[in-house]
Amino acid sequence: MELLDFRPTLMLPHSFSNVPIQNISHQENISGTVLNNRYAIQKVLGRGGIGLTYLAFDSHRFNDVCVIKEFAPVFQETEQFNKLRDLFIREAKILYQLEHPQIPKFYACFQSQERLFLVQEYIKGESYSKLFQQQLKQGQTFSESEIMIWLKNVLPILDYIHQRGIVHRDISPDNILKSAAGNLPILIDFGVGKQSNFSTQEITNNSINQSHTPTLVGKTGYAPWEQLALGQCFPCSDLYSLGVTAIVLLTGKQPTQLIDDSLQWQWRDHTKVSDAFAQIIEQFVAYNPQQRYQSAQEALTALNSLHTTSIKSVYFKSYSSPKPKIEKPKLLNSASTSDRLAVQFTKYYQDEYKFALF
Hints:
By secondary structure, the protein is α+β, with helices and mostly antiparallel strands. The chain has two domains: about 15-120, Phosphorylase Kinase, domain 1 (2-Layer Sandwich); about 125-355, Transferase(Phosphotransferase) domain 1 (Transferase(Phosphotransferase), domain 1). The protein contains eight helices and eleven strands. The protein is globular. About 35% of the residues are buried.
């Protein structure tokens, strides 16, 4: 008998909008539970703001291992709940469109006992957040050569999703895995991803609209200001977060430890890298979106140029260009710790732009 493997059809539960909030499960000890007469839960892998993640066996695929995410948000207020539910369903829709060897495959989205789940491919590996901690325990950090190779392996993933109008919006060490199979980085967690009809052309001042009230997504320190303050994102917004992640892996320090009171990056003294490579990283994390690389392909070209050009001719947009028209925030001088700086960073944008938190 020939076995045929068809791509799954995305069937979102129509009645989910009527699910009572109090019926959403937050039970984490459900080993042995079988969902949808198919998925046997083995253990809890983790919990995020939107829900729980389980390791399971799929009886319809010869007990193949898979990952199941349950929508079980921490926030239960109606408005916040509805926003998070929309993000969960959006993640399913985004994953359904993607077929890339460095993105977990989407298998299904289903409702069981008034609970919403999505099923994904299981990738064996460790997050770069965990690898980062392991390095620190050994008194080490990632080297320039390691991060250069890592960037060259991550940027094609971003190029793939950006070409399809998708911005991840949550790039960080937590959401990139090192695959145990091929050692390649795997991009996970599209829970706050956004699909837009943005142009891949360079951003203009007119494309940054400050007139609406956005919703905060992304991690403070990793997400760029236009994402946190204005709720807007572009391919270069993901590149900013990727640059911050590279800096964290190089220095062994968190973003809030590397940003001064005026939100300037101060990271060079905490690692040893060449000036040419540092200039490329600086362009990743430029404050003004127009001064960053505008596409993953452009950033790849810059990295590849390090092998064929001298430091003087390395591909880099000069920072002697006119200063950005967007004023940087003037924070209080009382920020004496990284925690206070993070609070100030968020508070400034709350006061200035009145964006909604959830």
